[in-house]
């Protein structure tokens, strides 16, 4: 068989003139519609209009033009079926061997600021997906192209043998079904948003590949990085890499964790992360002071870590950052001289990401997807914002103004530590982090041991309530002066009694921050 007739109708016209010109030179008859037909005529590429095939005009402002038996019989007829051939001959219908279609720009339309509902609806393609699916179903005989990146291979095969190979047609058909599925998923998500139905009875999500990764968490695991088609600003998928080698699976996970923490703060803040847990967090009058505190919090664990800042990196800070081994530095921007300093290190990844300095209280929750064997869990991201007015003092002693400041700082960080989580803070920096323990008192021991003598006069934050008073007893022995926790245990009075006996001020938030 050979490709004799092609139906071409594209919204994205990249490369289409050159592709069709070469097809025409190979003797392929080109059928087209609307703007594509006009462009090909303008460029002197031989083309016939769809109405010449259907014997029916394009109607309803172009809504109906290819939805016609003369089109779909030509796409769906099984060429080696005697019955199909007889039907085509009896009705005077001809075959279509190649379909080149991409769809109305629905994603680009809804991404535009101020787009109306009516505009969005008009950019839902009907005829395009129908032709693509018909051709893809009949890929045993029909070649279907939805991606301009495939034009060259199709041309090469047609030049070589008159037709594409079955293997190529299968590959292109599979790409079509992925393309139309993603297109429908975007439309479904748009309606869910319009109707405020974020958790419908059927949930279809789509992502676009950003890059293949060398491996996953470990070298024997295959992995890739995908992004939402309309990813919100301020997320790792929107970051621009300015320097350094390719990001790894673990780099992306850790960077995502660092970004989530640094966005908690309105004041200049720097976060250092290892294995998705903060090992050092500091806030200060400027980014240099903030990084100095984050570094001093744990100068051992920061080695080989990821650092995120919510202010532009200046030269002074860059010099200090460049003096230690770091995998990634993320910031809203880098001053030119800072960039020059950091680029001296060949492999360090530098990521520029806007939105890191946006007001923390204005953050909106996103829907997060976690896969489990045979399914997935969907939940809102934890962007709960706490203020002094939300706190309830449950001890005899009220926290001082400085203690309140440190408690709120610690609370913003502990919500990002793997549960069970205990965090100690002092002077607007973390000094001890106990993460991912099976019991809360174990997490407290780790945090207190890390803090050492610095624990005296520090505050303690717990991501969930204390089931008994043993954690407060440890805190008291270490010299902790104030505690923040959700409360809600049936034995809250045990912890309150220990706090009162040791003159510890304790506040409850009524909000838990489990992170598994």
Q: Mind explaining what this structure looks like?
A:
With 516 residues, the protein is of the alpha/beta class. The chain contains 18 helices and 21 strands. The strands form five sheets. Strands 8-13-12-11-9-10 form a six-stranded mixed β-sheet. A six-stranded mixed β-sheet has the order 16-21-20-19-17-18, with helices on both faces. A hairpin with a 2-residue loop joins β17 and β18. The chain is elongated, with a radius of gyration of 30 Å. It starts with a strand and ends in an 8-residue tail after the last strand.
What are the salient characteristics of this protein?
18 helices, elongated, 6-stranded mixed sheet, 516 residues
Radius of gyration: 30 Å
Strand residue percentage: 15-25%
The residue ranges in which pLDDT falls below 50 over 5 or more consecutive positions are none
The structure class reads: alpha/beta
Helix content percent band? 25-40%
Tell me about the biggest sheet?
6 strands, mixed
Provide mean pLDDT, rounded: 94
Main β-sheet, spatial strand arrangement: 8-13-12-11-9-10
Oligomer: single chain
Distance between the termini: 58 Å
Q: Would you report the number of β strands?
A: 21
| Count of discrete alpha- or pi-helical segments spanning 4 or more residues | 18
Shape: elongated
């Amino acid at each position: 068989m050979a490709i004799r007739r092609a139906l071409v109708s594209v919204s994205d016209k990249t490369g289409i003139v050159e592709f069709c010109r070469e097809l025409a030179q190979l003797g392929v008859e080109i059928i087209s519609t609307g703007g594509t037909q006009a462009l090909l005529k303008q460029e002197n590429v031989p083309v016939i209009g769809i109405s010449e095939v259907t014997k029916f005009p394009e109607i309803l402002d172009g809504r109906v033009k290819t939805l016609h038996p003369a089109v779909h019989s030509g796409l769906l007829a099984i060429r080696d079926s005697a019955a199909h051939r007889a039907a085509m001959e009896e009705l005077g219908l001809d075959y279509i061997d190649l379909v080149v279609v991409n769809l109305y720009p629905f994603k680009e339309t809804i991404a535009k600021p101020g787009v109306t509902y009516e505009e969005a609806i008009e950019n839902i393609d009907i005829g395009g997906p129908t032709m693509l699916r018909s051709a893809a179903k009949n890929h045993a005989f029909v070649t279907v192209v939805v991606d301009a990146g495939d034009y060259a291979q199709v041309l090469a095969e047609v030049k070589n043998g008159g037709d594409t190979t079955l293997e190529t047609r299968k590959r292109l058909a599979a790409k079509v079904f992925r393309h139309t599925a993603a297109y429908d998923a975007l439309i479904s998500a748009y309606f869910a948003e319009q109707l405020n139905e974020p958790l419908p009875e059927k949930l279809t999500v789509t992502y676009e590949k950003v890059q293949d990764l060398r491996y996953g968490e470990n070298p024997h695991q295959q992995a890739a990085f995908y992004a939402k088609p309309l990813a919100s600003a301020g997320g790792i998928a929107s970051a621009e890499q300015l320097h350094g080698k390719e990001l790894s699976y673990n780099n992306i996970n850790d960077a995502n964790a660092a970004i989530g923490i640094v966005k908690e703060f309105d004041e200049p803040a720097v976060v250092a992360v290892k294995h998705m847990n903060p090992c050092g967090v500091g806030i200060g009058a400027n980014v240099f002071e903030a990084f100095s505190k984050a570094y001093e919090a744990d100068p051992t664990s920061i080695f080989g870590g990821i650092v995120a800042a919510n202010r532009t990196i200046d030269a002074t800070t860059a010099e200090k950052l460049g003096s230690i081994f770091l995998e990634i530095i993320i910031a809203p921007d880098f001053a030119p001289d800072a960039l020059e300093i950091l680029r001296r290190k060949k492999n360090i990844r530098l990521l520029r990401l806007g939105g890191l300095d946006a007001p923390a209280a204005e953050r909106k929750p996103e829907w997060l997807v976690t896969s489990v064997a045979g399914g997935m869990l969907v939940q809102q991201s934890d962007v709960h914002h706490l203020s002094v007015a939300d706190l309830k003092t449950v001890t005899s002693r009220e926290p001082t103004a400085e203690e309140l400041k440190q408690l709120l700082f610690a609370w913003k960080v502990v919500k990002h530590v793997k549960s069970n989580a205990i965090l100690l803070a002092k002077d607007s920096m973390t000094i001890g982090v106990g993460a991912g323990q099976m019991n809360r008192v174990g997490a407290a021991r780790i945090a207190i041991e890390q803090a050492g003598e610095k624990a005296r006069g520090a505050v303690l934050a717990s991501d969930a309530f204390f089931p008994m008073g043993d954690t407060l007893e440890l805190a008291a022995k270490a010299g902790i002066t104030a505690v923040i926790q959700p409360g809600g245990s049936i034995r809250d009075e045990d912890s309150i009694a220990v706090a009162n006996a040791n003159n510890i001020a304790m506040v409850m938030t009524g909000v838990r921050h489990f992170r598994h």
